[in-house]
Amino acid sequence: MSAGKLDDIDRKILAALQADGRMTNVDLAARVGISAPPCLRRVRALEEAGYIRSYHADINPRALGFEVQVFAMVGLNSQAEADLSAFENRCRSWPLVRECHMLNGEIDFILKCVAPDLSTFQNFLTEELLRAPNVASVKTSLVIRCAKDLPGVPFEIVEARAAHRA
Predict the structure, then answer these.
(1) 4, 32, 88, 91: which could form a disulfide with 12 (CB 3.0–4.6 Å)?
(2) pTM of the model
(3) What is the CATH number of domain 3-57?
């Protein structure tokens, strides 16, 4: 099931679940205009095809005492595939690292990190990240505030592309 093979109902299901993953199947079916049994079959098919990766709650980090968010731009000494994979695996083991993206350009990776306070992040930076094998440089930027943080994809564009193909 490729993006081109999704029909209008599939796209409506994905958009609705992206906005509210806790919606019941009955509510979802009513929202997209089909009955509950075929809606559930479609959701399962979308999950199996990899369109829906997971369901989770969007937790407020500050409510749990995580006051610091930092983006760390990491440069490596070697970009050999084995070294890139080793760094990615190490990132998966660090609890403070919530996202790890390999980039094209001067920076090899950007990490989104959260910490309860600046000293906790600073300890992670000096004791873990800077000491990690193959790490050549790290530049950090402390987040002051977030103006926009939306999950998923813009379904307005998905729908416009689907209409263009039709």
Answers:
(1) 32
(2) 0.86
(3) 1.10.10.10
